[in-house]
Automatic annotation (TrEMBL):
Lineage, opening ranks: Eukaryota, Metazoa, Ecdysozoa, Arthropoda, Hexapoda
Secretion signal span: none
A GO BP entry: microtubule-based process
SMART domains attached to this UniProt entry: Dynein_light (SM01375)
Organism: Drosophila guanche
Protein name according to UniProt: Dynein light chain
Entry annotated with the keyword Cytoplasm: yes
Length: 105
């Protein structure tokens, strides 16, 4: 409120989050930390190819935590999934990029 003298520029600013924003997760702390780091690394490496980023995340999660992992990487989508308890992560990274990981056997 103290910066009201600058005009309408405050309302026009777009906030871009560069850290991961976890919207929902029931994973244990160790698995969640590894999944977040893996997701960020893959999305930074394949920033122009979400399909490749999802493939890398899925393959790595299958190797580390057992098979049947599913991954969606993208912008502007909704989802409803069935999953094994303690095996879902939904996060945002770099603004609008959403990543959903879940295990379903």
């Amino acid at each position: 409120m103290a910066d009201e003298g600058e005009g309408g520029k405050e309302g026009e600013k777009k906030i871009l989050y560069v850290y991961p924003l976890v919207k929902h997760s029931d994973m244990n702390e160790e698995m969640r930390t590894e999944a977040i780091e893996l997701s960020i690394t893959a999305c930074e490496k394949y920033s122009s190819n979400y399909e490749q980023a999802a493939k890398i995340i899925k393959e790595t999660m299958d190797k580390k935590f057992g098979i049947f992992w599913h991954v969606v990487v993208g912008e502007g989508f909704g989802f409803e999934v069935s999953y094994e308890t303690e095996n879902i992560l939904y996060l945002f990274f770099a603004g609008n990029l959403a990543i959903v990981l879940w295990k379903c056997s």
